[in-house]
User: Fold these one by one.
Assistant:
Number 1:
Amino acid sequence: MAAVLHGWRAARVTPLGELHTPPRMTAVLLRLTVQVVLVASLWRGLYAQTGTTAGLSRDQAVTYAVMAVLASRLRELDQYAGRDTVLQHMHFGTIVYWYLRPLPPQRYYALRALGEQLYGLAWALGGYAVCLAAGVVEPPGSAAVAGVFVLSMLLGQWVLYYVMLTLDQLCFFTIRNNSAMLILIFAQNLLSGVYAPLWFFPDWFITLSGFLPFQATLSVPLSIYVGRIELSDAGAQLAIQAAWVIVLALFTRWVWRRAARRVISQGG
């Protein structure tokens, strides 16, 4: 019972920071609305003079782009304002408290991420329902496509969790890495297809991204949703996503053990 209570408290850390700050929630709603409107307008404008580009119709491209914006809300909570990022904890020396709590730091991090994703899921589902009702995005082609998409999205978020964990674990091995974190986050968004579908990039770029886990986080599930990846090919993509989950889980577990040896108080 105590473990469940500790887990619940850890999971609601960052969401509570949002819920207790109404202006921040208003800003999120405004930013999300503007992003959806601008992205939908941009892709509609790009397809104004053409029917199909890079194998995508206008409605497919708009659906992909808008859902990428909504999916970005799953892990986009403002941890920095609450001084709850690993980078801040390392800088101020408060990371040591992660090792003094009843929960191991690995479990605390996982539970906190779970709470963030569930909170972000509420935003994403709300936005999806509004966009679907307004005709901004298309519904899935069939119930089977919807089911495979949900499974792929779950695996994608699992991969994304380990990718973001790996970036945070980098903080244990560097003193000042703000710029490196920004560069890595930008690379993750670019290679996962957040900014634009990967099919619009050169062949060498697509080939390179195929050897990295980033496209498994978002590009694959959204490609299944819009029909770019057929159901007959989805099984192989799901297997690749599952393989990345296993590889990254083993890697981050190994890094956690090494990171514990480097915990020191800096500043504060």
Number 2:
Amino acid sequence: MEEKKLVPAVVRAVTVLDELAASPEPLSFTDLVKRLGMPKSSLYGLCTTLLDLHLIRKLENGSFTLGTHVMGWANAFLSQLDLTQEFFAAWDDMRVLPEETITLSILDGEDVVYIACRNGTRPLGFTFRAGMRLPAVYTATGKAMLSTLPAPELDQALNHPWPDPLTAHGPRNKEELMVELSDVQRLGYSVDACGVRDGMHCFGAAVFDSNNRAAVAGVAVSLLTQEADEAAQRRAGEAMRKLANRLSERLGASRKA
């Protein structure tokens, strides 16, 4: 196979843009020289060109940040993206747990809204449908997404009367939920142990995109409780974490769930 040849100037330009994108603060020319190790003359030429193309902008204090042209690319990418199509494409690529029910949902206030479902061949006694709403605190995808929220946003998301329970299981207050969210962060996946339906265990993971630190969606798999022994739970949780990572990559995220 013929080896790919990269254009050095393009690689250097992308390196500059990546460094500015990764920095929480604008960077001076001196900062860029130190961080990138490029010759000053080469970096100066790159910055001048990037400025002319509006890919970076220069602030009044002389430091640099990303420019408006980059936002145009980001908006074009997002406008072409269909989250549900990416979900099914990622799942088809992986081909794990093919007989189980898989769902994709987003947060909407205190609920999760299911936007894509692939109901499996194993009967659960419960059918997920696109458009279905359930209280986020009881669902695997809801817990996965809530676990990624900064503390102020999480407090705001939970600032409402506790929803009526769907079963005799699941968290009964914020304190119990916080314990579960801590487990999600430790394990990398969430667990709904019969909180949505008796006899059904669900395992979820958070999906990220390139623009948000908090999750933009969640994926989950549902198993019959009688089949959810310790080994099966671990397999299901890890499978969802891998699926979430694959979908996050398709959405342009550098962070993994």
Number 3:
Amino acid sequence: MIMKNLKLLSLLFTGLLSFNVQAQQAPNKLNVFQDSLIKISTATVNALSDNEKLESNGRFVKLLVEALKTPNSFAYPFDSLKTVSVIKSPDQAFRTLTWYVQLENGSYRYYGTIQMNTKNGPLKLYPLIDQTENMNDPNVVTNNQKWFGARYYEIIPVTSGNRLPYYVLLGWKGNTQATTKKVIEILSFDKDNVTFGAPVFDGKELKGKNRVIFEYAKSNAMMLKTDLKAGMIVFDHLGSFDPEIKGKPEFYGSDGTFDGFKIIGGKLKLQEELTLNNEANSNDELYADPKKNIKPIRKF
């Protein structure tokens, strides 16, 4: 009996030791992957031509997928890889990894993936294929193969009744040499299908909107974030610097007022002209003081 117990304890100890070794090996392996990814991303940024940038980024994509195949990679933050925005959903169901390559003409191409949290199961990725240039209608409902590319920095889950939850993604979208965009995107899952866009916005001029896109002068900045004190998604309201100029976003910037979306009954209800006590936030992107002569134009 004593010998049997000793053998059992020995087996248990060996099993635990093997588990601990494997648990330690995964982060070490991912550290090596991360170091290599940092070198490739630096080479991509410093490349002298678009072809070199895109070729380097192709190597980056391939190596990132290999890294994510490592067991328990979902728990690895990749926090030293500054070119990639890695954001987990608050419910830990998935995370987004998104980044961009800026081209010589000042435009951007976006790349990314959604990694599902499968615990110790197999890797489950949804690659995000930027099709911005091919979208005649930026309001169209799409999937991960036809993605309105952006670099996401915040995820807000929305649940209501017995309906499937959806997620609000806040993203930055460098656009051209003249303008920058930010986007409020809607993400939902149904079995193995990924959907971007949904008519969940409630407010004037928002009927039929599947996503909200803001566009403003590249020389300015725009706040778009969740405000826990206000209990809503808040953003700078954009207006034209010149009252005579309308419909030209290269002349738009913050007019010093704030709007927001409050989650009510599973919808994003527009709240206008908010009073906020804003705290400093890295997502404000070096917020620029509004011009005094901006005329408000409330239009999405």
